[in-house]
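Predicting holo structure, protoporphyrin IX containing FE bound.
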Amino acid sequence: ATATTDGGLDLEVVNASKQQQQQHATKGILWSSSILTIYLLALIAVKLSLSLVNRFLFARRARALGCSTSVPVYPHKEPILGLDSFVENLLALRGHRLLRLFTERFLKYGNTYYIISLGRWQLMTAEPENIKTILGTKMEDWPIAGPRLLTVLPVLGPNSVFTANGQAWHDARAMIRPSFVRDQIADLECFDRHITNLLAAVPRDGSTFDMQKLLLAMTMDSSTDFMLGYSTNSLTKASPEAQQFLRDFEYAARESAKSGLLGMLYFYLPRRELTASVKRLRAFILGYLRRAVAEKDRKGSAKDRNYVFLDEVLKLNASEDHTIDQILSIIIAGRDTTAVATAAVFYYLARSPAVVERVREEIREVGEEKPTWEQLKGMKYLNNVVKEGLRLFPPVSSNSRAANKETILPRGGGPDGKQPILVPKGTPIRWSLISMQRRKDIFGPDAEEFRPERWDEGLRVGWEYIPFHGGPRICIGQQFALTQMLYTLYKFFSTFKSIEAREHGPFLTRSSLTSSFANGCMVSVTPEKM
Ligand code: HEM
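Done. Tokens:
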């Protein structure tokens, strides 16, 4: 290019070379984006082929192991993340119909089926043989993991009896087991004190009250009494610290349920309030722990009762943190469950006057103001009433685990769902006790009805009825809970002639750490002594 007076050629030349540069750049971009596209397509193709190969190999292994490869699948409209079922779950959760939705799906798709849960295949089951395998015969293949772990992890940490697996779980369970031997459970003084407080709080003028709320207060009072030796006394005169403990406990339980729902996402959300609540909960227990240490050798302490869990645990010289982990676990495991299970019995009794009459007859036969453990256990009908309540509304209505290796479940495959299936490593599984314990093919056509007499008619059940689960991790507080329920019912129907339902809407349940009545258990009583 030569110079001109106005420099025009120079400009043209510059413009031309700019254009060329731009063309080069555009070509470069196009080139690299096509390479990227080819690379991505190749990656997808490789992934797809690998997944097809894996599927093929998996199916071959399954067949070689005698497993069926045909397992029902939820008919997703959005089959990548499974957002359709997720939204359906969320809506049901908000409408307090999640448990009902689980049951409806089992009726539609079979007692074991696959569903996508936020991009991940998950198994659902209401099959006793599968649950027996997960909790019993192949427990090692199905540790506490996935949603079940996430739900309690923020509050209990990884070393509590309720969250740990393997040796850590063995150690934690061994630490608390001696505290649940029969002699302790049969000490009814503690229950008596708190049921007396509950009875005093029941309105005598026939007005409506929430039985579930009273029972939640009572079980918190009795479990803190049993564990710490001092009760929160929420039914009578809760101290400001006890009131704060109750608030923190409720808050932590609510937040835990959220973490179960949101999964790992929850751990990225700000959790300052939860951290503060958990810190206060632990400090509350620590206060009693240190007091127990100080009082260990001192006589005549001001404790509410003679047998105290904490005193027994101190003998083991475990660290403060470890002890607090276990105490918090037991309160979380035992408080709401026992309250809701008892509320469920009241819920059904409030709708079954003939059953109440039989219960009162049996109480009259015993005729004691304060029955013994043996007398309570000998009350056949009352025990059946409790059993039937726990069948229709087990407070741990649904639960889950995840496979830590490729493993076999005995049911779910083939046209009748009765053949074994091979489950890939990492698969989470959720079971629904409430759906299983209401199955008509197990409990008969009237499975949805409250009929305690069914337990006297030769009904033979094993893993079909497991409100406390089964296997090595069976609820350690089962006898504690049953005794408290029997004692509560005995004292209640020694005091009141009848109980009436004051709410007749559908059976709505709130799903949190455990299940509960979404709108409480609204009843009134007839204030007449026997
Ligand atoms: C009606 C009342 C109760 C019901 C329905 C119930 C139910 C259950 C269930 C289903 C489990 C197994 C959870 C799992 O493996 O994921 C469990 C575990 C447990 N429960 Fe209960 N429970 C009740 C009351 C209690 C009480 C009163 C206590 C203690 C005072 C208690 C303490 C525990 C503990 C510590 C575990 C963990 C056991 C382990 O993993 O080794 N529960 N409970």
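Residues 8-64 form the longest helix (57 residues).
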